[in-house]
Here is the input.
Amino acid sequence: MTQLLTLRRGDLVAVVAPDLGGRVLSFTRAGDEVLWRNTDLLDADLQPREAVRRGTIGFGEWLNWGGDKSWVAPQGWDSPDLWPGPPDPTFDGGVFSVHDLDLDSVGLVSADDPATGVRMRRDIAVTADGMTVRTTLTNVGEVSRTWAAWEVVQLPIEAEDLRSGSVLVRTSRAASPHVLHRLVGDLPVAIRDGVTEVQLTDAVGKLGFPDYDGWIEYRRASGVGLRLSSAVARGPHPDDSPAQLWVQTPQPQPIAELDGFRATAALLELELVSRLATLAPGESVDLPVRWTLL
Here is the structure.
């Protein structure tokens, strides 16, 4: 059985899985689910349907459980200065120890990661109108390393969201986002009054927002949604984008550019990334993110 922790405040309930990368698997308001989770991998009780694989097995075989998790950026497989995941045995697929457990909050700590030289802590707390998640990376190695903390929240896309759902990003300038990946289709963008709006379509791709100015939100066709807020840190960011958006809809063929990854679900990822920090041994960088339910 996978360990599950339940955090509550009022009608808000978060279910956290320390054994599955310390992620939030479920976040509900009055019983209504906010997050996307992979029902092919998880049963109705949020228990894995198959054995958990924790090694590096290639992106095409990644077990994407869903929910909210923290990673390490920049990402890649061609250099020791890049985080080679997901999947990986420490963060996305690792077992986190439990600290400071309370009725509405918990601290989770990863193992020391040999690939990056860092240890991750996730501090999760349910609030009156959402949640806060603070990701802290600490250099536990013997040499300086440069990394950023990275929070990734997966949310569902339903058929009606493809017709009238959108992602909104507050930006400081009327500049087009960076196209980080264009794999299938396009993501139409409109910019007005300091807000960049991305219309959801049948597509697989990723956008980065260099001029992110404090919040990114998913507004669903029903009008409900989720806003992620963070302070805008000065300094370089991975992909020059402190906020990023991944969109995928089901595709008939594996995506060769993603190691044969099969896009079988409709979901998006709201992603926030800290500044890139060169950490001497013992130093840390953190990313505090506030969730607000809309």
Q: What stands out?
A: The chain has one domain: 5-293. Residues 159-164 form the longest helix (6 residues). DSSP finds one helix and 21 strands in the chain. The domain at 5-293 is CATH 2.70.98.10 (Beta-galactosidase; Chain A, domain 5).
